[in-house]
Specification:
single chain, rod-shaped
Length: about 400
C-alpha cells in the first residue's frame, strides 16, 4: 500500500512539474528559458547517461522515473492542447518547433501579438467602411445639390432663350402690376452679364449651403433660429456680393409678426436690422401688394406702391420686393425678400426689372427649401406671425 501511495504521489508531482514546465516553455524567454532548458535537460541527460555508464554509484528509484515521465507526458499534452488551440484561433500563423525552443520570444506573447494584429485589422476595416459610407453619403448630397443647381440653371437658361426670341420680334415683356416695358437694346446687351451674375450667385450660395448642411448632418445641435438666420443671411450676402455686385446695395428678408413686416436678416454696409423700418400690415405698400399679386414688384415700375416711412425710401433710387408663394397666407406674405439700390445707374434699374421678369424668386425658392428642411422654416414663420400679438 505504501509503494502504491508513493507512485500516486510521484504522478501528482509529475503533473505539477509538467504543467510548470509547459508554462515556462510558453511564457518565458531569454535567460529564464535558457536556465529551464539547461537545468532540466542537463539533469535528465546526466541521470540517463550515468545509469548507462555507471560512472557514479547513483541509485535512481522507480518513483523518480515515474515522476519524470509523468512530467514529460503532462508537458507534452499541455503543449499539444495549447498549440492546437493556437492553430484554430490563428489559422494563418505559421507554427514550428523553433517557437518552442527559441529564447527570443514567448509562445503566449506570439499569440497575443497575433490577436492584437487581427483586432487592429478588424478595427481598420470598420473605420474604412465608416469612411466609405461617409463618402457615399457626401456624394449623394453632392448629386442632389448638383441636380438642384442644374434645375436652377435650366430656369435661367430658358428665360434667356425666351428673351432673345422676344427681342427679335420687338416684344415687350409684362411686369406686374399692369405694366409692360420694351426689351430695349441696352437691356438686351446686358443680358449675358446678368446671366453670368446669376450663375455666380448660384455657385457661391450652393457651396456655402453645402458647408451648412454638412455641419447640421454631423449631429451638432444648432438652434432653429440660428439655422434659419444663417441660411437667409447667406442668400442675402451672396445676392449683394455676387448678383448685384454693388457695395451700397441692401438685401434683406422680412417676416410678418402679426401686425407688421419686420426684418429678420439684413446684408448691407451697416448690417443693422434695428435701423430697418417695420412695414405696417395696414399700409398700401409694395410688400402688401406682392402678397396680393404673388409676383415681385419694382419701385420704378410701380411707384404708386412705394411707401415712405421716415423718408427711408428716399435713400434708395430703386428696389424690388419678392414674395414666395409657399410662404403666403391668404394675401399676407409671411416672408419677403427686398433688394434696394442707391446707385442711379440705369443698368442696376434694368437689372431689377430683369430679375422680376425671370421670376428670380423661383431660384431663391430652391434655397429656402433647404432652409426649411434643416430648420423648419414654415413652423418658424407661423410662430413669428403670432410673436407681436402675444
Amino acid at each position: 500500500m505504501e509503494e502504491f501511495l508513493r507512485v500516486i504521489f510521484s504522478i501528482g508531482i509529475g503533473i505539477i512539474l509538467g504543467t510548470g514546465l509547459n508554462f515556462a516553455i510558453c511564457s518565458s524567454k531569454g535567460l529564464a528559458k535558457q536556465a529551464i532548458f539547461g537545468v532540466g535537460g542537463g539533469s535528465i541527460i546526466l541521470v540517463i547517461g550515468n545509469q548507462a555508464a555507471q560512472v557514479v554509484d547513483m541509485k535512481v528509484e522507480y518513483t523518480h522515473v515515474v515522476m519524470l515521465f509523468t512530467a514529460l507526458i503532462t508537458c507534452a499534452l499541455w503543449l499539444n492542447r495549447f498549440i492546437s488551440t493556437l492553430r484554430k484561433k490563428c489559422p494563418d500563423l505559421p507554427m514550428d518547433i523553433s517557437y518552442l525552443v527559441s529564447t527570443d520570444s514567448k509562445l503566449s506573447q506570439l499569440y497575443d501579438s497575433y490577436i492584437e494584429s487581427q483586432k487592429s485589422a478588424a478595427s481598420k476595416e470598420v473605420e474604412f467602411k465608416r469612411r466609405e459610407e461617409n463618402i457615399n453619403e457626401t456624394q449623394k448630397k453632392l448629386d442632389i445639390k448638383e441636380k438642384a443647381l442644374t434645375e436652377q440653371e435650366k430656369i435661367v437658361s430658358s428665360a434667356k432663350t425666351e428673351l432673345k426670341e422676344q427681342a427679335k420680334s420687338g416684344f415687350v415683356f409684362e411686369l406686374p402690376y399692369k405694366k409692360s416695358i420694351p426689351l430695349s437694346e441696352s437691356l438686351l446687351e446686358s443680358l449675358p452679364k446678368y446671366f453670368e451674375h446669376v450663375i455666380n450667385f448660384l455657385n457661391s450660395t450652393g457651396a456655402q449651403f453645402e458647408l451648412i448642411t454638412n455641419q447640421i448632418d454631423s449631429g451638432e445641435a444648432i438652434p432653429q433660429e440660428v439655422i434659419i438666420n444663417t441660411g437667409l443671411s447667406i442668400i442675402a450676402s451672396s445676392i449683394r456680393r455676387d448678383l448685384i455686385q454693388d457695395s451700397s446695395a441692401r438685401v434683406m428678408f422680412r417676416a410678418f409678426n402679426g401686425t407688421c413686416f419686420e426684418a429678420i436678416a439684413v446684408d448691407s454696409r451697416s448690417r443693422n436690422e434695428d435701423k430697418v423700418s417695420k412695414i405696417p400690415q395696414s399700409s398700401e405698400s409694395m410688400i402688401t401688394q406682392v402678397g396680393k399679386y404673388k409676383r415681385s414688384l419694382v419701385k420704378s415700375i410701380n411707384p404708386e406702391f412705394d411707401l415712405c416711412i421716415n423718408k427711408s425710401s428716399e435713400r434708395w433710387s430703386d428696389y424690388i420686393t419678392f414674395p414666395f408663394e409657399q410662404y403666403i397666407d391668404g394675401d399676407i406674405p409671411l416672408l419677403t425678400m427686398n433688394i434696394s439700390v442707391k446707385n442711379q445707374d440705369k443698368n442696376l434699374t434694368n437689372y431689377l426689372k430683369f430679375l422680376s421678369m425671370i421670376r428670380f424668386e423661383l431660384v431663391i425658392d430652391e434655397f429656402l427649401e433647404v432652409v426649411d428642411e434643416a430648420g423648419d422654416l414654415k413652423s418658424y414663420l407661423q410662430q413669428f406671425k403670432v410673436k407681436e400679438v402675444a
